[in-house]
Amino acid sequence: MTTDKTNIFVLGLDPFNERMCETIRNSADYHFHPLLDPDEVAFAETYDVPDLLSKARADLDSFEEPVHGIISWWDFPSTSMLPLLRGERDLPGPTLESVLRCEHKAWSRLIQKEHLPECTPEFDVVNPDEVQDWGDLKVTPPFFLKPVKAHSSFLGFMIHSEEEWKEAIEEIRENIHHFAEPFNYFLERADLPEDIRKLDGRHCIAEDVIGGRQATLECFVHEGKTEVYGVIDSINEPNGVSFRAYRYPSELPQGIQDRMIEAAKKWAEVAGLDNTPFNIEFFWDEEKDKLWVLEINSRMSKSHCPLFAMVDGASHQQVAVMLSTGRHPEMPYREGRFPVAAKYMMRVYENAEVTHAPTDDEINALQRECDCYIRMEVEDGQRLDELIDQDSYSYEVGVVFLGGNDFDDVDAKYERLREKLPLELTPVDEEGA
């Protein structure tokens, strides 16, 4: 029986973000359908892309009502699957090639070097299977080394010495297949320049260390016009790699935000993005008044959904949903319950075993008491080194979303919550493990 609701399929629909979908305007007009499980597209040990696409196509083909849109808020491989699944059904969305210009870190840097040279650090492409001599690199230590396709800082290393370089190359060589093999599936199906086709997913990029105040611009392109609807500050841990918090709205000077916005619009044009959300991460070196592009993602950030809901009154899933059905997105502005909001990543820096993870009842009680959202990433009996897609320096055991009157207020709320959170960890004896 056909309903009057708009049917939106979501790659990796999870309970937490499904709840966020309820905050978008006119949410009752939509029916959100799961398309593959989050464990298949976000937390898998391996990604069998042909099998994932086959399952997704079967689910879509068996649906007896119209499919009005397909979206996702997860990173790769969802970002590259969407153009294929949408294209087969003539649904709005970006081309695979435009997505890969964002997702392929080396290709993205080469384009940035041509069109945004003032924002592009020195970099070099590295093949870990044919390691070039340390002294032949264009970059000098310290520099950052990472695969051309990964996320969550997976296999990302800060390199200070030749010894660290050799150790990182060895670890990358052993584990790069996790993203390289599925990424190559999409590269083989895209219309690529010959020089880019040679840089498959088993390559890495080494680039100068850039820094400063970090911010992410949430943007979209609709029928060739780019708009930026939010700027979020990223706060790092002391190691300079792991994130501590995301804060919305940004506290950067408006003039700096305007310069970032102009660069984001230029990128969307040269990358050929259209009918899609995307975000772009910048550093502002305040001392030199210099902007650097850190990374570009061809998707909206799920991490920012509760922040927009708390401050503006609707999750920015609203942008993805409207674009997926061919409409110009409209977001409310400052209609939320709080002037500011933040996401905190709860991190542990040594391996441990979870002897007690907060139960659903404990989490729900804390959420009511502290007026927040909590999502735990661990369970009883789990070792932290079993967590998937962690950065190279820490373990993310959970996240917390909080709103407040200002960021001092939110920080204080977070510290009180951490003291009350019933998470118990026992250090692991690595030598005896």
TrEMBL record:
<keyword id="KW-0067">ATP-binding</keyword>
<keyword id="KW-0436">Ligase</keyword>
<dbReference type="GO" id="GO:0016874">
    <property type="term" value="F:ligase activity"/>
</dbReference>
<dbReference type="GO" id="GO:0005524">
    <property type="term" value="F:ATP binding"/>
</dbReference>
<protein>
    <recommendedName>
        <fullName>ATP-grasp domain-containing protein</fullName>
    </recommendedName>
</protein>
<feature type="domain" description="ATP-grasp">
    <location>
        <begin position="109"/>
        <end position="325"/>
    </location>
</feature>
<keyword id="KW-0547">Nucleotide-binding</keyword>
<dbReference type="InterPro" id="IPR052032">
    <property type="entry name" value="ATP-dep_AA_Ligase"/>
</dbReference>
<dbReference type="GO" id="GO:0046872">
    <property type="term" value="F:metal ion binding"/>
</dbReference>
<dbReference type="Pfam" id="PF13535">
    <property type="entry name" value="ATP-grasp_4"/>
</dbReference>
<dbReference type="InterPro" id="IPR011761">
    <property type="entry name" value="ATP-grasp"/>
</dbReference>
